[in-house]
Amino acid sequence: MNELERFRRAVLVALIATLILVAVGGIVRATGAGLGCPDWPRCFGSWVPPTSADQLPPEFDKSRFNVVQTWTEYINRLIGVTVGFLILYAAFRAFRVVRRNRQAAVGAWIALVLVAFQGWLGGVVVQSELQPWLITAHMLTAIAILMALTYAWYVAAPERLLSGAGRRPLLFNVGSALFVVLVSQIAIGTQVREHIDEITNRTPDLPRSEWLAGVNPVFVFHAAFAWAVLLLAFVLFEVVRRSDLRGVGRVCGLGCPLALAGQMLIGGALSSFALPPVLQVLHLSIASTVATGLFLFLLITGVPQPQPAPVAVESETPSEEVRP
Questions:
Q1: Which tens digit of pLDDT belongs to each residue from 29-78?
Q2: Domain spans of the chain, in order of start
């Protein structure tokens, strides 16, 4: 296995781990465990959180302790640290390939900078007691990390996986429109969740069935905007189906619209069945995965892969001696 293959595997592992972290973050949000650890970077003043309120230091309010929420948030932090180290490892491997593929190395280094910023931002979110706009920034930064890792993987990927890659203006333009609308929809969805948190904090005894009633304007806009996402998804599906695009690009171009159609059904189930936590996590996970797949589709249809610099290989044939 050469250095470029090792780098590519490291980036792919970091990318998958980041998607898992987004899903775990969705579990934290759906279970209300965002303040399960009220301090940062420790949890209730300890590197390993307590298992009962009696173990809390005197400066913490025992009434705020919930063992399930505490350990949910703690596990989320552990996975976040693991992802950080995986991206750090990919960034380290980038030094081995920078001469051969500078774009891939830069993508990994950008991901490392973003994950460092994300770690700092996570602490700010906790210290602000889940300030709404900071949560949105936290989610958008996670998407940016996914994009940087996707770019690093793409420019280092073997050509056999990306048959047909190159500039295809129609596919790229339709995919770009869908990508922009989808990311906007994710941001709006985060706003919906933030409004729900504000309502439940003010009225903790409010039944789940009435949560969405208090966020009607934002939620109605989120639901209406979903039709724009679905329409563009249908257009992309048809354009890709009629094209000669093959390989990973075709899988992304057809699979992402189908996933978004399923996403629309999940959104309807969320509003109809009082926001089941399982569907909340699934809703967020699909959105982030599709955004990643669409970004890869845009790279395949709009950004030609760089030609790696040749690796110098010493000749095994000894040179002939010059005879006088």
A1: 888 777 788 888 888 888 998 888 888 888 888 887 889 999 999 999 99
A2: 1-157, 164-306
Bridge partners of residue 215, in order along the sequence: none
Compute how many other C-beta atoms are within 10 angstroms of the C-beta atom of residue 139. Answer: 22
The tokens describing 221, both together, are 């806009």
First to last CA, the chain: 45
Question: Which residues contact residue 287 at a Cβ distance below 8 angstroms, ignoring those fewer than 6 apart?
Answer: 182, 185, 186, 189, 263
CA angle 95, 97, 101 (to 5 degrees): 125
| Phi–psi pair at 43, nearest 5 degrees | -130, 110
β-bridge mates for residue 43, sequence order: 46
- Residue 203 CA to residue 321 CA, distance in Å, equals 90
Residue whose C-alpha is closest to residue 136's, from 24, 220, 25, 229: 25
Angstrom distance (rounded) from CA 57 to CA 291: 43
Distance from C-alpha of 208 to C-alpha of 114, rounded to nearest angstrom: 35
CA–CA dist 15, 2 (Å, integer): 20
In this prediction, residues 202-206 reach a mean pLDDT of 76
Tell me what percent of the residues of the chain surpass a pLDDT of 70: 90
Tens digit of pLDDT for each residue in 2-40? 888 999 999 999 999 999 999 998 898 888 777 788 888
* Tokens standing for residue 252: 């992304």
The answer to whether the beta carbons of residues 36 and 69 sit under 8 Å apart is yes
Nearest to 53 by CA among 61, 62, 45: 62
Q: Which one is predicted more confidently, 132 or 287?
A: 287
In three-state secondary structure terms, 314 is coil
